Write the structure tokens for this entry.
Amino acid sequence: MKRKTVFWAGLFSVLFLLAAGLALLHGGGTRAVISVDGREYRTVDLDAVTEPYEFTVQTEWGWNTVRVEPGAIGVAAADCPNQDCVEQGSISDGLVPVVCLPHRLVIEIEG
Amino acid sequence: MSKTRKLVFMALLTAIELTVWVIEGQIPAPIPVPGVKLGLASVVTLTAMALLGRKEAGCILLARVLLSALFAGSVSALLYSLTGGVVSWCVMAALLGLFPEKLLWVVSVFGAIGHNAGQLAAAVAVTGTPGLLWYGPALLAAAILTGAFTGLGSMYLVRALGRYRK
């Protein structure tokens, strides 16, 4: 009986260390949320990105081409008058969102 | 135990489980991973399963899950707690007979792993983001810790409540 307790405790300890290590290594998922006019438009899991790609968000005020790279996201081009969103470059953490005020587009990273 | 006594006992356990669940919800989560919680309510479920039986524990669990949706006032959370609860009930019901009472905590750990796996699967299905699976290792680690803790809790509770055994 005692040996069985030790066996299970040991097995779960090893499993726990493995899982915790994997979780820490990965550092939790980083998810980018693109919203237009306050409504969620699309979410991108930045950790799952292996190849950079772009897609265009068409809003009723104009378009923004969003560039997604492994762990980072930003606006590559837009037809907005001030080009603030393009000049901001890409973000990789949740500190500051990318904002295109004229198009009411916000890109935020959470997690 | 007479039918009436059993019914009253089950109702009491349901009330206890719901209370424990509500109180635990008021405690801020120490780890910023969504879905990680101690799961104290499962102490009652496993205790009921060991004392009264699988079916009775299932009834108590279902009643608690449905009532908790009323108390929390969120229907979307109901889906997650229902999936987690059902999966963990299935796992624990299957394993209960295979382990002696001294290893009840092992059943609880597997139940907790099942609970978190079920919730994760539900979250992936609902949001359509397979990237959520990256939470898997963190949830697994959490399940082992919390499952062992709540399992030990029900082990001692079963021992203390032995005279209410069916």
Notes: Residues 96 and 152 of chain B are 14 Å apart (CA to CA). Residues 3-164 of chain B form a domain with the Arp2/3 complex 21 kDa subunit ARPC3 fold (CATH 1.10.1760.20). Chain B has a mean pLDDT of 90.
